[in-house]
Amino acid sequence: MSGLLMPLIQVTSVTKQFQRRKKREGFWGTVASLIHPAYETKTAVDAVSFQIDQGEIIGYIGPNGAGKSTTIKMLSGILVPTSGSIVVNGLVPDRQRKEHARQIGVVFGQRTSLWWDVPVIDSIRLLRDIYQVPQAQYQRNLDCYTELLGLAEFLSVPVRQLSLGQRVRADIAAALMHDPAILFLDEPTIGVDVISKERLRVFIREINADRKVTILLTTHDMHEIEKLCPRVLIIDQGHILYDGSLETIRARYSAGRVLAVEFEDEIPDFTPTGAVLQRSEGRKKWFEFNRYETPASALIAQVSARCAIADLTVADVEIEAVIRAMYAGQAGRINS
Q1: I want to staple 242 with a disulfide (CB 3.0 to 4.6 A). Which of 2, 34, 49, 234 is the partner?
Q2: Relative orientation angle of helices 164-176 and 120-130, to the nearest 10 degrees
């Protein structure tokens, strides 16, 4: 947050709990459950706090069941927090739903907001009427999103006949037709092909840069996070583990680096001092080492003494491995 400006999204000590019926085994257990049902409390989000400024793209990541989708549903006003407070652009989502809906767009990758049996363009026109979008604004957005997302080929096709990639592109266009200030994307590219993923990434970067749309993105695709999100929030078991940049994660939680070497000739596998052989393919070998314990130059000298080197690169351990280590509570020890 800069100066005295308030954050666009303010989440303070938010907890969400669900009551679910306990299942009892056997016939008499089933009967007893019907007569005297017992319930247990499930905490999906536990005292979560964060803030997001206007124009940010935030990656919200964590394993299945960590609390990502529950958070998105509370931010969009679908669910009411059990405790704590959420303020989005001056509005409380669950109390001011109608006003709030006009300032946000939401895309759930596993569900569609479009009408299943009608052409895409008919759904978009209906949403135009629901949000009372002026004709000039609607036409400008339709032309822009049709070009950027490649909608022309399937605007007249019923939603049920679209591929997953086409449907997600149509959903995102529909979610932005009323020019929301904020876009919530919950696993938008799950199951989407590589070409459609890249097209969506380019589009997300463009609307953020050109229209200053603030974006909160949940995904399991770490490549997507690295391409799009300067800042990440990591959640696990309902708790925020980390809030910051990917580079800071690497610096704080991973001392590991990988030396990839292509030799002039094939040689037997070996383990140099201060490193471990990660994998081997033909003339190429990958060695993992701790940057603070083994200088890269010393390792390269060792390796080159074995055989002439055709090519080599030194890179950080993949961020996905770092995140896995954080989930497992093994920060600093990365095992690929």
Answers
A1: 234
A2: 20
